[in-house]
Design brief:
heterodimer, A: alpha/beta, eight-stranded mixed beta sheet, five-stranded parallel beta sheet, 15 helices, 13 strands, globular, B: alpha+beta, 5 strands
């Protein structure tokens, strides 16, 4: 095929390698700074089946580094906008968009359709969730993460190698690691790290060279120094993931400073918490709690003064999606102690 | 012994350098960290792993290489 002629002439790829690529199924978590270059190169290379999961929408501040999107994509869901762009780039492949948040409730169902997971997420909660699901499903994870001018790349859970928890067994303390929106990132860095991740995916599919399994590649864009650190496999960390449920682990990982979410159980244990129902009046079940309030999301903006901002506000809706929007709205209006209850009213009624 | 220490990510904002050489008189990685915490008190509250000779190493291990790296987790994407 003309499209892959530059692959065909490589002895290491050739028609057989291209066939492997066309049969490969790769799930990319996050269509952001890392996900965009990963997806771009995997699609162009002819990875036959690509999944993209991202609940977020394209904003102007994303365009500095999220190269799949243009001004026409503003306001669109990232997974859907990326799919549109990728099918233009390569209509011969299959792209499935999941315009939703990755949680312990959906990750196993989605990920079991794929052979490799690429971690292009932007928070620790998702990174630990991906690790744990990959351990349970026996899938390799091509990991990448960035901080300002530095990046890390590795391959976890591959060929009996270490997992992310073998490197960092427990999530960092809340608020201890700032995220991109707080500290900034040089746009090109995500391109470099994401492209390194795409390279690892292609190597795994083609069984080519030496993967970064058991190694953490650290890159400093200011000094151009690459450092490779050896990561030991810690069987106890892997066994622990297998013995706990994803949900227990996800709750334990409620740590990320940019996570707006909280588990229902943790919310209930907070002091001076007010449960704010942001659903429409007709939605059921109603909850029974002395500190419950009800303001539908569409009216929230006009009733901000009624919110006891000195207390912790735990917003909930039916499934935990609208409540994230509610939290973002409250935070924009300087009501900072607020969270969205993961899984919505269903999870909340289980613990009340 | 003299140790060459590399700092990554946000740790460099505490140490104000990406690498330095220090004189170490203790035995284990934990001893080394105590020495570094005295020099940089804010380092104590941070999450990071320690590598020696480019191998991620538990804190109870003896310092046996001159090359040390302090590596925090990154979350950005």
């Amino acid at each position: 095929m003309e499209r892959y002629s530059r692959h065909m002439v490589l002895d290491e790829v050739g028609p057989q390698g291209q066939q492997k690529l066309s049969l490969a199924k790769v799930l990319v978590v996050g269509a952001g700074g890392l996900g965009c270059p990963v997806l771009q190169y995997l699609a162009a290379s002819g990875i036959g089946s690509l999944g993209i999961i991202d609940f977020d929408v394209v904003e102007t501040s994303n365009l500095q580094r999220q190269v799949l999107f243009g001004t026409q994509s503003l306001g669109m869901n990232k997974a859907l906008a990326a799919k549109e762009r990728l099918l233009d780039l390569n209509p011969t492949i299959t792209v499935v968009a999941y315009p939703e948040k990755l949680t312990s409730a959906n990750i196993l169902t989605i990920a079991k359709e794929y052979e490799i997971i690429v971690d292009g997420s932007d928070n620790f909660a998702t990174r630990y969730l991906i690790n744990d699901a990959a351990v349970l499903l026996g899938l390799p994870v091509v990991y990448g993460s960035i901080y300002k001018f530095e990046g890390q790349v590795s391959v976890f859970n591959y060929q009996n190698g270490p997992s992310y928890r073998c490197l960092f067994p427990t999530p960092p303390k809340q608020d201890s690691v700032p995220n991109c929106s707080e500290v900034g990132v040089l746009g090109v860095l995500t391109g470099i790290i994401g492209t390194l991740q795409a390279n690892e995916v292609l190597k795994i599919v083609l069984d080519l060279g030496t993967s970064l399994s058991g190694k953490l590649l650290c890159y400093n864009s200011k000094t151009n120094v690459f450092t490779q650190l050896t990561i030991p496999r810690i069987p106890a960390e892997i066994e622990k993931v297998k013995s706990d449920t994803l949900q227990e682990n996800e709750e334990a990982v409620f740590c990320s400073n940019n996570s707006l979410e909280i588990s229902a159980k943790n919310a209930l244990e907070m002091k001076e918490v007010v449960f704010l129902d942001v659903r429409e009046p007709h939605e059921r079940p109603k909850i029974q709690h002395p500190n419950a309030m009800h303001i539908p999301l569409r009216e929230l903006e006009h009733h901000l003064q009624t919110i006891p901002s000195e207390k912790t506000i735990a917003c909930f809706c039916q499934s935990g999606i609208r409540s994230i929007t509610a939290v973002q709205l409250l935070q924009k209006n300087n009501i900072s102690k607020c969270y969205s209850i993961q899984g919505g009213v269903f999870e909340l009624t289980k613990v009340l | 012994m003299k140790l060459h220490i590399k700092y990554f990510g946000l740790l460099t904002e505490i140490t104000h350098c990406e690498e330095e050489t220090i004189v170490f008189t203790g035995k284990t990685i934990s001893d080394l960290l105590e020495q570094l915490f005295e020099k940089y008190p804010s380092l104590q509250g941070k999450d990071f792993q320690v590598a020696q000779n480019n191998q991620v190493t538990p804190r109870g291990e003896t310092v046996s290489s001159n090359e040390i790296a302090l590596l925090p987790p990154f979350s950005g994407g």
